[in-house]
Amino acid sequence: MSQQEAPVVAVLGTGAMGRGIAGRLAETGHVVRAWNRTPAKAQLDEAGITACETPAAAVGGATHVLLVLADDAAVEEVMSGLAGHLTADQLVLNLGTVSADLVRRLATAGPIADVGMLGNANHARSGDLRFYLGCDPAQVKRAEEVLAHLAKEVRHVGPLGTGMNFKLALNLLMGLEMQALAEVITLGETLGIDRRELLDTVRGSGFSAPVMGFKSIRMASGRYSAPDFRLALMAKDLQLAIQAAGEALPMATAACQSHLDACAAGWADYDCAAIADALAHYPAPDPASPRVRS
Q1: 199 vs 188: CA distance, rounded Å
Q2: What tens digit of pLDDT does each residue of 143-164 get?
Q3: Distant-in-sequence, close-in-space partners of 173: CB < 8 Å, separation ≥ 6
Q4: Strand, coil or helix: what is 52?
């Protein structure tokens, strides 16, 4: 595919996931224009990716605009700044986890689809993500033009907002699994059980789910830097799930409070598996030299 023929895609937000997505799209023949709120953290040095100073500069000429942002406030700020810069023939794809109400409100400004995204930065870079797409059926094909390069599964799950609701439901399960593992560790250590032995047993048993097995490795080692999914984002998603339910979710409410307490104790920017150490009241390490469990 020549540079002239290559489709142009804007990626707004190049944290761990956004960088992986931008790199994968460049590798699959797209011209990528990327923007990050903190340029120094963008780390965009691959061929085919142009770092832009503003979101407006990134979206010019793009067929698709991918939002890979942390929360409702970030998405609202960026989309407000793009007023007058987006055209009716551009499709905005929101890949970050935000409220379904927000993406529905944004639809008044132009074509948008919400994409519940499962996977980590390595999956993004290798094209092995899973996407749960919420949009009008007429937009599915346009969305798949880009999403198919990033995922091993793209499933249309319903109208606008459904992708976000799907992701909230799945992340609720993950949050509860992390809370459960953390409590198992707390009980075990209180009773004098070796953490590594206990987690190794859980991981090899029928009680374990794949994500629990994966995260238990971090919990066993106490290595929470270079997060796959930050604890602060898990806390945010648990809050969104509780708000969306509109009624009591007792387990979610308890897990959410644990995660909020962990954020307040300094664990916010570590991997969500750090809830195990936060629940046990271990102090959060200096980010410059993450603690490694002895």
Answers
A1: 10
A2: 999 999 999 999 999 999 999 9
A3: none
A4: coil
Distance, C-alpha 144 to centroid of its chain: 19
**Length, in residues, of the chain:** 294
Q: CA-CA distance, 199 to 193, in Å (whole number)?
A: 10
> Within 13 Å and on the Cβ side, how many CA atoms surround 79?
26
Encoding tokens for residue 267?
């664990």
Provide the mean pLDDT of the chain. 92
User: Residues 6 or more apart from 206 whose CB is under 8 A from it?
Assistant: none
C-alpha 198 chain-centroid distance: 29
97-125 pLDDT, tens per residue?
999 999 999 999 899 999 999 999 999 99
pTM given for the model: 0.88
Q: What is the SS3 assignment for 114?
A: strand
Among 36, 65, 99, which residue's Cα sits nearest to residue 245? 99
CA-to-CA distance for 11 and 185, rounded, in angstroms?
A: 39
Angle among Cα 147, 43, 285 to the nearest 5 degrees reads 105
Q: Rounded to whole angstroms, how far apart are CA atoms 179 and 276? A: 8
DSSP state of 284: P
Nearest to 125 by CA among 202, 16, 8: 16
What's phi and psi for 161, nearest 5 deg? Answer: 105, -25
Alpha carbons 138 and 174: distance in angstroms, whole number:
32
Domains in the chain: ranges and CATH: 8-160 (3.40.50.720), 165-279 (1.10.1040.10)
Backbone angles phi, psi at 18, to 5 degrees: -60, -40
CA distance 277 to 178: 11
Helix, strand, or coil (residue 141):
helix
Among residues 16, 25, 86, the alpha carbon closest in space to that of 55 is found at 86
